[in-house]
Amino acid sequence: MGDTYTLLKFVHVLGAILIGGGLIGVWVFDLCSRQVHQLPQFAEAIRNIAVFYDGVVVSGALLLLASGSWMIVQFFSGWDFVNFPWLAGMVALFTFEFVEGNIVTRFYFMRLRRLTQEALSSGTITPQLEKARAEHIPTFTHFLDLPMFFVMIALGTIRPTTWTLFFIGSMVAVIMATILTILVPCLYPWLIRLHLSEPRQFRF
Fold this sequence. Notes:
Elements: H1 2-33, H2 39-75, H3 85-122, H4 127-133, H5 137-158, H6 164-187
Helix pairs in contact: 1-2, 1-5, 2-3, 3-4, 3-5, 5-6
């Protein structure tokens, strides 16, 4: 049992590292995509976002799902995990992020990549691409991913015996995502024309 738990815990930690690294990569390249004026550079940034999401975040999520489910069934007697606020909170947040990430955020970036490829083929920015780039809900969910992940890590590390950290952490994550959704478009306007002028240097 000890060896099994150690292996599962290793896989679980590996999955968390992949998710965290992937989400940071997505955040960085999304910020880069907002600061370019040339369509090929924009397309490259969007392609890198897709690589980080599909190749890193999704892989980490699957590892986390498999190892976490196995540990809950084997070491927490299945549904008894609801009696542990830290564990139940992690399961709730992971379920929310897994569903939201795959239904909203990931599909949005996949659509954005397709529209960017179509724009590259036509040699101009299409109205569909500009409209997609200005959507607020996918932007909010994208900015929500990383703060929610930090809340999950906090729950698994601190392991509180009450629901206080879960609710306060979730509220702070939503506030942070809201601020970023409002602030980032002010710093980098949504309707990027991507002229063929010299690109700006990325600023972080």
